[in-house]
Amino acid sequence: MIYDGEKGDIINQYVAFTKIYNDQIKLHGRTRKAVWETIHICRNQDVLKEYLEQREKEVVDIMMTLFDDEYILRTYIASEVKEASEKAARKS
Predict the structure, then answer these.
(1) Where are the domains of the chain?
(2) Torsion sign over Cα 11, 41, 31, 82
């Protein structure tokens, strides 16, 4: 588990970024808007500001890829569960 770290250090900033990101997901879902809002808020609050200014597009691309991977995994699991349920129903 990552703890908050010292105020302003990289761990503290990363934890702050994650909290802001989670809040934005609650508001906007797993969308590009949530990612952009997270970056905007973090830059305004000096959370990973320099990194986000230099690599904004890269951060958005990575986070959107994570959404896509998570969606694919959830879809696969749902289809496997459905298939197993159908197979069990046919055996009954």
Answers:
(1) 10-91
(2) positive
